Amino acid sequence: MRALILSDIHANQIALETVLKHAAGDYDAVWCLGDVVGYGPRPNECIEILADLVSICVMGNHDWAVLGRAGIDVNDFNPHARQAVLWTRDQLRASNREWLDKLPDRPVHPGGFEHLLATHASPREPVWEYILTPTIAMENFAVFDEDVCMVGHTHKPAIYRWRLHSEPDLHDEIQTVATVDLLQLTTDAPIHLATSSQERLIVNPGSVGQPRDNDARAAYAILDMEKMIWSYRRVSYPIELTQSQMRAAGLPKRLIDRLSFGW
Ligand code: ZN
Question: Does domain 2-258 have CATH number 3.30.1330.30?
Fold first, then answer.
């Protein structure tokens, strides 16, 4: 079983369709890590594509904000993100709003795989926390038991590896210590997600619709569940088409411009 892992589509229909075409034939199920809407110009279309496609999708902070749920003040968003949230709220068809409203806001086991966890932001704060450093990843490894946790939210592809080592302390006594490192990722080298009681992982596929790692191409991953191979991919899409849709919708210029640069 191979899963197509999508995250942070952010209503970028052109990027989503390009990814689906690029990955065609390489997957058996689609799992989405949230933030289907917000920022981008085609929220209804993206929900309608995903509703027919995904076997799981978790809720992201932008999905949550668009729903206007308690627990989030849209004023906590920066002015451009807020403007996009309010615009999206206005655009959303009732049936699509209902679909968003049913997304789980807690971590789930995708496909019923008990050794795998999926959440938008982090296991500790499923909708809000950014795992951007090994220190924050380390704190999060303490709050889940599964071998691998998949997250999105940062819009940056990443793999954090937690390992237990034995090493001598100052008195030459052997101690067990845990460390977390951020692995280097390349798109042409699939990674074996090796896990054991000594080794666990937090993996992030990056963002389909608004990458922030200085690479403007759409990012996604394929996870082969039998071999536990994570293939991280990038694909160019016609950014200018999404940008002209955004301009026509009157979305903020800064959000339009950033897509060209991937920040
Ligand atoms: Zn996002």
Answer: no
